[in-house]
Amino acid sequence: MLHTPTGGAGHGTATAGDRLMSIGTVLNQLRDEFPEVTISKIRFLESEGLVEPRRTPSGYRKFSPEDVERLAQVLRMQRDHYLPLKVIREHLEALSRGEQPALPAPAGSRELLDGVVDPDPDRPTAARLGRAELLVAAEITEEELADWESYGLISAGPEGGYDAESVNVARLVADLGRFGLEPRHLRAMKAAADREAGLVEQVVAPLRRHRNPQTRAHAEATVKELAALSVRLHAALVQTALGVRLH
After folding, report:
1. How far is CA 60 from CA 15, 30, 40, 55, 56, in A?
2. N or C end of the chain: which has fewer CB within 10 A?
3. What is the model's pTM?
4. Over its length of 247 residues, how does the chain's per-residue pLDDT go in tens digits?
5. Measured between alpha carbons, how far is 97 from 82 in angstroms, rounded to an integer?
6. What distance in Å separates the CA atoms of residue 163 and residue 247, rounded to the nearest whole number?
């Protein structure tokens, strides 16, 4: 749930100025629910016509609470339903016309959605995406995916198919590519991530081997917590090295 400032008149009125937010403030609000979001992602969604913030005379973006909620809607549909931006845009336009459309799914991706919300997590195909589904969900080309796979940034599972997180990785690699960072530049990040994963595995391996089912279940919760802490530490170290603050 996003928390937006209260008070002031509605969007478009003269007294709404005190409710408008900078892109940095918007980033802070969105990161409670979407920790992976970046300023470049918000700018990209704006360039795709999914949000239209106001501009000050000097050119700075100013977002209303409605803009922030719209961004959150877009990010939820990407995260939870793996919808391409074109489909999301059409869905939001239908809502703005007062229609009540059913949430669409990418063509041919029924298996994708079934996998993500599969009530049977032990089914072998749970949370697995086919290659075509990954291309649609991440909005990338076959050539891009093949290139990223050659550098080890994305890989299919032993039985084929991709996990749901592959969509997020693909989108982030694409975002970095807009700044001129090529897959060969990102190999160091992949190597660092593998080393961090190895450290987490060392911590939880004894728990996973335990005979008590509750202890084994605790191992999975520990993995998630350690992963989240590792991501936060990595972000803090990068920000410290660059001398910047994102929030």
Report:
1. 18, 19, 15, 5, 5
2. N
3. 0.51
4. 565 444 443 444 434 455 899 998 999 999 888 887 888 889 888 988 899 999 988 888 999 999 999 999 999 888 887 777 888 888 888 888 888 887 765 444 433 333 333 333 333 334 578 888 888 888 889 999 999 999 999 998 877 888 888 888 999 999 899 889 999 999 999 998 899 989 988 888 888 888 877 777 778 888 888 888 888 888 888 889 988 776 5
5. 23
6. 30
